[in-house]
Structure formats: C-alpha cells, structure tokens
Amino acid sequence: xxxPEIIQNFIQGFTAETTPAGAAKIPDFREHLxxxxxxxxxxxxxxxxxxxxxxxxxxxxxxxIPVPHFAARSITxxxxxxxxxxxxxxxxxxxxxxxxxxxxxxxxGDFTDSTQxxxxxxxxxxxxxxxxxxxxPEGSPDMPDSAILDAMRWKNAYAxxxxxxxxxxxxxxxxxxxxxxWDKFLQSEGNELPIHIGVPGLATLKSLMMHAxxxxxxxxxxVLTKQAKNLTKLLVVNAPDKQLTDLAHYHATDPDCGITGIxxxxxxxxxxxxxWSYEVADGRIVMNKKGGFDxxxxxx
Length: 300
Fold this sequence. Notes:
Layout: H1 3-11, E1 16-18, H2 20-23, E2 38-41, H3 49-61, E3 65-71, H4 78-92, E4 96-100, H5 114-119, H6 122-125, E5 130-135, H7 145-162, E6 165-172, H8 176-188, E7 195-200, E8 203-204, H9 205-215, H10 221-228, E9 237-238, H11 241-253, E10 259-265, H12 270-281, E11 285-287, E12 293-295
Parallel strand pairs: 1-2, 2-3, 3-4, 4-5, 5-6, 6-7, 7-10
Antiparallel strand pairs: 8-9, 11-12
Helix pairs in contact: 1-11, 3-4, 9-10
C-alpha cells in the first residue's frame, strides 16, 4: 500500500466539532460536512447548556450525529446532569457523548472530574452507551500526570464492567513524537480504550499559536515557536499534512498502535478544514519532498 493510500485510509470517518457560537455563523452544516459526520458540540466555561441542546437538535435535523460535551466542573449537581441528559436524548436523539472535567478553576457544584459523572450511571440509564473521554498526550494543566494515569485505569475498568463503548479523544498537538511516545506508554500501562487523536485543522500560524496557548498545549508548541521566528510565516495557512502522514505510517506499521481515528479541530474555521479533510479522504493528494503531501485542489 502506498503512502497516499495509507493516509487516505487513516483519515476516513474523521470527526469534527463546533461551538454554539460557531454554529450560529453556519447557515447549513451540509455546506461543509457530509451527512452522517460525527460533530462534537464544545461546551466552553460559562456557556448555557440550552445552546448545546439547540445545536444538537439542529445537527440531527441536518443529518449529522451530534456528540455534546458534558463538562463536570460546569454541572452543579446530579439533578442538573440528569435533566441535561434527558433533554439531549429526548430532543436531539443523542446516544453518544463526550465527558470532560472542563477548564474551570473552581467547580460550580458537586463534580470535579468526568469519572464522577460516569459513576452516577445516568448516561446508561437514559440509553447512552457510547462515551468519549479526554486524552492528554502532552499532559494537562488541570491534573498531575499521576492522576491522569489513575483516571485512565479507572475508565478502562469501568468500560469493561459496564459494557460501555468507550474511547479517548485527545487534545490537539503539533508534533507526532510526543503522541507516539504517549500511546506506547498507555499501552504499556494496560490501556485498551481506542484513541482518536486530535489534529489541528487548517489555520494561520498566528491563529494556531493563540489556540495552543489558550488550550494549554505543551511540548509540541516548540514546533510553532520555531516557525514563528520567521514573521513572514505568521499569516500563512498551515496544513497538518506532515503530522497526518507520520501518524498514518505509525498506525499502519505498528501492530501495537492504539490510535484508531482522527478528530479534526477546525481552528481556522470549519469550511477550510472540512474541505481539506475530504480532499485527503478522497485520495486527492500528492506526496511532497517535505515528508508530507499537498492536496490536488489547494485549500486557502
């Protein structure tokens, strides 16, 4: 199998995401995404969950699979959690969610992390048996590494005991080496949850650096700061072709690879990231001398 085929196969079924504010700027998601695409609905600190419900309803009507975020530190108590679950299930037919701790310094109520949400049993009670949990290839500013490892072990045990279809979806990173090292470490520690790696979509270097700082992306920031020394590159649109090439090769050649999917973060807007991702998924790429590839139809 050639490199283009390996990359094409690897990106198939990629997932995307939106915020309620971002969704408000998109007249119809079908203008950018193919029907049946999985779309996560990001919950930002201070947001109104009613907006999440509205976007989930809209995505379902337009032919997509909505996956709302449930951010533990932004949920006041078990009653509110259950009400929110009942709403997305009843109004948008949701059967798939992502649970996270949420980037809030001081929890608004009873929950501090996603394991506490899972322990309530409320997702299964209301028919949700596919649950994504967060993965952190470069660590998390909100949790020490030891706590992250304990949570990984707990979630593996929980998935087995409850029969939950659980997997990890990670924060984006810009360097493949820390991702591969992290994946190998997790496998050595007994992780059996499939991993969907977060990949930054098309955006200017300036925009990527802003998002990386905001999201606490760690070691691989060096990749960006090195490029940023050349000021002329700040407004050039960057594509993750080299990163995707290296990840696809790792996935295809290492039988112990735990990475099974890709989640595209539309940091520079959904249109250009979706357009580029479909070019790749459809095999319209040519390998280049930089170790990556170019799409046949250039995406600007």
